[in-house]
Write a structure and sequence with these properties.
Chain A: Pfam families: BPD_transp_1. The complex is a heterodimer of chains A (325) and B (355). Chain A is mainly alpha-helical and 325 residues long. Helices cover 71% and strands 2% of the residues of chain A. Chain A contains eleven helices and two strands; from the N terminus they run H-H-E-H-H-E-H-H-H-H-H-H-H. In chain A, helix 2 runs antiparallel to helix 5, helix 2 runs parallel beside helix 7 and helix 6 packs across helix 7. Chain B has 355 residues and is mainly alpha-helical. The chains are: A mainly alpha (325), B mainly alpha (355).
Chain lengths: 325, 355
């Protein structure tokens, strides 16, 4: 029986090794001497593993499983990892904005808003046909008048922007529906493509990061070093970027592998359901989907499942070991 | 209590309305583009035996029947070429637009008709629900019961803890469709163990009794239920277990032990109730998650349920059906959240009911 520390270290190195192998396989997929993942070999249909020229067997259409797995790793690297990163960036930005500005700290001069409204009204007036022009003009004049009155009042010279409320509202909208259903409905709307899937995954996953960033920002905003920076008269953006973001990033960094794992789960599930990625893109989920046509072909289930499970376990292992440090 | 309910609904209903409107406008707006309509509609018509004029007429009739000939929203903008660029012209369409018609129908409980077979969506949805509801409710009850039992077991027997917790962490990493496929491979495989049917529902036969039919449908839903439970149970038990361990360190537990309460009673009567709060959060998140999980499970086990209906109509761009599925799930989520707050109050009366 090894000591727990040694075992943990061993597990950690195993996890890192697996992820590095995955990255290596994904990046070198096009250079390896493999058949294309969507090219059928009609002489070898539903071959079990260890047949010559198809080490891990073929599926019902004669596609090579090994090539599918390696190109699937490439798809995962090109979809889930960028999506997790961009979701983390977007979430950090919106969450820290919400945490820093709160509901009343960011104030916009009312004059700016007024000019924007008047300009917008004017621009739409120009493009409108004559009878409605009068109507819009009246509206613009009324709005301008109201704004002028508002700006005359000394206390209303600036308007607070409820950043926190707005971000929370956005999060509430996005979490009102389970993520899988939302992604399914959104992915069905557009043409399947890798970029579209990336955008959809980013848009649905950022609330997780945003909530962490917001909570951390709210906690550290009242710490003395932030107050000191504020008292020194540093501009807000320097406080946010130079002083607050490093400590926020520390708490985001830990959850990043879990985010990648969750997004791999969604990506493979979507490919399994046949939504999201274009049909010729290789993916672990797609190999598993072909297994439904031939339930006795165990290699169609075992190999991709092993890849998914190992990747998930490795990502979790890295998360936990970095939490314990 | 009533004030709480009203204020919760006042907060949650606008959120549901906005997200549904966004999905409606996105789906209709993107499919209303002429190229899209050409592609999807021309496939239904015999293109090569008709003249282009007939094609256009038939397409127009189809669009009219689906209500797609109306403008999309109250206001529409159109780019017109003007001198030195493009001018946007805004037009007020009045209430004769797709959004208004859809919203009024929704308020009346009329969800429209399916694009694919022109059946009323309410019929399709209610038929699918008769299959999904028993599955999800069964899974929910099983998860709650098994989670309770397993948490108590873990609290009582220290020795099994490392093994069980490791196993739970392992199960937690598996995506649902992998679990379902592995179960199929292990337990419904003619080459290995052929214990359970691989797909489908029980066939209704006239000659058999009601009890036999009930048993048969139970037998058919073992694997779907089991895969839903296997995926959702681990995180539930892990959370509840951690909360329970935290509670067992509290001072009142020490007091209870010091006055000589039996260890099992300390856990069940004293600690478990206080550890209930995270469990309630999880259980209410579970209801919509089960509906989403039903998508995968119903596809794999070929059950004609809600999740499969949503997935298939999403793939076929049958938007009235997808939208009503989303409406239904958002409503379930809403009710679950309100229920959670009420249960919080029941579990811990110190918590104030506020929106």
């Amino acid at each position: 029986m090894r000591r727990p520390e040694t075992r943990r270290l061993w597990q950690r190195w195993l996890a890192i090794l697996w992820l590095m192998a995955l990255v290596a396989a994904g990046t070198s997929a096009t250079m390896l001497p493999l058949p294309a993942p969507d090219a059928p070999d009609l002489r070898a249909i539903t071959q079990p593993p260890l047949t010559p020229s198809h080490w891990l067997g073929t599926d019902l259409a004669g596609r090579d499983i090994l090539a599918g797995l390696i190109f699937g790793a490439r798809t995962t690297l090109l979809t889930s990892v960028p999506a997790a990163l961009s979701a983390a960036l977007l979430g950090t930005f919106l969450g820290s904005m919400a945490g820093y500005w709160g509901n009343s700290r960011l104030r916009v001069p009312a004059v700016v808003t007024g000019w924007l409204v008047i300009l917008g009204a004017g621009a739409s007036c120009i493009s409108l046909p004559t009878p409605e022009l009068v109507w819009w003009l009246g509206l613009a004049v009324l709005g301008g008048l109201a704004l002028w009155l508002a700006t005359r009042n000394k206390y209303a010279a600036t308007w607070p922007v409820p950043v926190d409320k707005l971000v929370l509202l956005l999060i509430a909208f996005l979490t009102a529906i389970p993520r899988l259903i939302l992604v399914l409905a959104l992915a069905a709307v557009q043409e399947p493509s890798q970029l579209a899937l990336l955008i959809v995954l980013t848009l649905t996953y950022w609330p997780v990061t945003a909530q962490i960033a917001r909570a951390t920002m709210q906690r550290i905003r009242h710490l003395s070093y932030i107050e000191a920076a504020y008292t020194l008269g540093l501009p807000n953006w320097r406080i946010i970027i130079g002083h607050a973001l490093p400590s926020i990033w520390n708490s985001i960094k830990v959850t990043l592998p879990l985010g990648v794992a969750a997004l791999i789960g969604i990506e493979t599930t979507l490919s399994f359901l046949g939504v999201g990625l274009p049909p010729q893109t290789a993916s672990w989920g797609r190999i598993l989907a072909t297994a439904r046509l031939d339930p006795t072909a165990w290699w169609l289930i075992v190999f991709p499942s092993t890849c998914i499970v190992f990747t998930m376990l490795a990502l979790r292992q890295i998360t936990f070991s970095s939490q314990q440090e | 209590m009533r004030g709480f309910l009203i204020s919760r609904l006042a907060h949650a209903l606008p959120a549901a309305w906005v997200i549904l409107s966004v999905i409606f406008l996105l789906s209709r707006g993107l499919t209303n583009q002429p190229t899209e309509a050409d592609g999807s509609l021309a496939g239904n018509l015999a293109v090569h035996v008709t003249t282009p004029t007939q094609n256009r007429l038939a397409e127009y009739a189809l669009r009219k029947r689906r209500g797609l000939d109306l403008p999309l929203f109250y206001v529409s903008s159109r780019a017109t070429p003007a001198s030195g660029g493009v001018a946007w012209r805004w037009r007020w369409n009045g209430v004769h637009n797709q959004y208004h018609v859809w919203l009024c129908g929704l308020l009346r409980g009329d969800l429209g008709r399916s694009f694919r077979d022109n059946q009323p969506v309410t019929t399709l949805v209610s038929r699918a629900l008769t299959c999904t509801l028993p599955l999800t409710i069964g899974a929910f009850i099983t998860i709650a019961g098994a989670g309770w039992g397993l948490t108590l077991l873990l609290a009582h027997y220290r020795s099994i803890r490392p093994v069980v917790v490791t196993a739970l962490h392992f199960l937690q990493t598996l995506p649902l469709f992998v679990v379902a496929l592995l179960l199929l491979l292990l337990l419904a495989n003619p080459d290995f163990l052929d214990w359970f049917p691989a797909y489908g529902l029980a066939r209704p036969e006239n000659s058999t009794t009601g009890l036999y039919q009930l048993l048969s449908s139970l037998y058919h839903s073992v694997l779907p239920l089991f895969s839903l439970v296997l995926v959702s149970l681990p995180s539930f038990v892990v959370q509840w277990h951690n909360a329970l361990q935290q509670e067992l360190k509290a001072d009142y537990i020490l007091t209870a032990r010091a006055k000589g309460v039996r260890p099992s009673l300390v856990i069940r009567r004293h600690a478990l109730r206080n550890a209930l709060l995270p469990a309630i959060t999880y259980l209410t998140d579970l209801l919509p998650a089960l509906v989403a999980g039903a998508v995968v499970v119903e596809l794999i086990f070929a059950l004609p349920g809600m999740g499969r209906l949503i997935a298939e109509s999403a793939a076929a761009r049958d938007f009235p059906v997808v939208l009503s599925g989303v409406v239904l799930i958002a409503l379930v989520r809403l009710l679950a959240q309100i229920l959670a707050d009420w249960l919080y109050y029941q579990a811990d009366p110190r918590i104030k009911l506020e929106a």
